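Q: Hi! First time doing this. I have a protein sequence and I read that you can turn it into a structure. Is that right? Here it is:
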Amino acid sequence: MTLKSKVALIAGGTGGLGRAVSQLFLDEGARVIVTYRRDQEFEQLKGMAGVNASRLSGSNVDVTDEAAVQKFIDGIVKENGRLDFLVNAVGGYAGGVKLWEMDAGLLDQMLKLNLLSGYVLCRAAVPVMLKQGSGAIVNIASKAAVDHAAGAAAYVASKAAAVAMMDSLAADLKGSGVRVNSILPSIIDTETNRKAMPGADFAKWPKPEDIARVILFVCSDHAHVLHGAAIPVYGDS
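A: Yes, that's right. Below is the predicted 3D structure, encoded as structure tokens:
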């Protein structure tokens, strides 16, 4: 499943899941560009990339800022001549509070991280992919998009909206050569989630590396029949 000569943008590419995706795409030969918000995380990713570090670059960019993202993607295309894959692993979680007890700004925060990020990234990336007649977009949503648990109204609303948006975008792009799909993980086995839920059974959580393999497949030509799908990746949970 070689990605040699392919160019991948991994938004949130230094986070718990994004890091695994970035490393796998590098291992498969892709040129990988990541967005990040903490310089230290990018330096760590470069160190982990080893011999592949020469094909890794990144930018500390706010992916909800449309002007900044447009400039960023214009730069990617100018340097590389194309953009083959967009994986949006940007997101945030807030929960444990009933809807009427939530902070007034929480819904806006969840919509910004989980919905607006994908909207802004796709608005900049899709015209590039349409011009070249090919491309694959994968947006990381959540099991919560279809399983609406108590105490997480703002979060589940943002993730459900993100899936609906990608579904509509897929319909817009039908027959264009550009594919769009969503991935719906349950709780991912990351250091952050382990600290947040120390009493949980971590063995049942999907690993970032396993989800990254699913994302790689969905982006590859082997998955050319996948378009407009919302793919559950729940592990044993």
